[in-house]
Amino acid sequence: MATIQPSSSFKRLRNRYRLVIMNDDTFEEVATFRLTRLSVYVAMSTIFVLLVGITIALLSFTDMKYLIPGYGKQGAIQELRVMRMRVDSIEQALVMKQQYFNDLRRVLQGDTASMRLDTVTLELPSPDSLITD
Questions:
Q1: Structural domain boundaries of the chain?
Q2: What is the pTM of this model?
Q3: Contact 52, 65 (CB under 8 A)
Q4: Which helix (H) or strand (E) holds 22?
Q5: Which residues does 32 contact at the CB level (< 8 Å), separation at least 6?
Q6: Dihedral angle at the C-alpha atoms of 26, 31, 36, 38, nearest 10 degrees?
Q7: Tell me: the pLDDT tens digits for 56-81?
Q8: Integer Cα distance of 21 and 31 in angstroms
Q9: What pLDDT, in 10s, does the model give residues 81-108?
Q10: To 5 degrees, how large is the angle CA 97–CA 100–CA 102?
Q11: What is the DSSP letter of 117?
C-alpha cells in the first residue's frame, strides 16, 4: 500500500502547468501562463480576501450599513425609546382629560345618577390601640 508522503504532496503543489488560451477559429495562441497549484491557490485566496475586505470597507465606511436589517444608529434607538415613552404618557394624559371632561359634562347636565360613587370603606384603627402602643 502506497502512502502519500508530505514531501510528495508539496511537490505536486509546485509542479508547473501551462495554461494556453487560443483563438478557436485560427488556433492562434492569445495568452500563455505558466502556473503551479500553489500559485493558483494563493491567487484565489488573495482575490477572496480582497473582495471580503472591500465589502466590509463599503459597509462600514458608507451609508450602506443602514440598509442591513437590525442595524441602526445608537442615538436613533434611544430617541425611539424616548419618543415611545412620551407618546404613552400623552395617551394617558389624553384619556384622563377625556374622562374628566365627560364627568364634568355629566355633572353640568345634572346626570349624576349614572356616575359611580366611591364606596370604598376605610378601616381605621381604634383610638385605644393607638394609645396603648
A1: 7-69, 73-109
A2: 0.48
A3: no
A4: strand 16-22
A5: 18, 19, 20, 21
A6: -130
A7: 999 889 888 878 877 777 777 788 89
A8: 5
A9: 999 999 999 999 999 999 999 888 888 8
A10: 110
A11: P
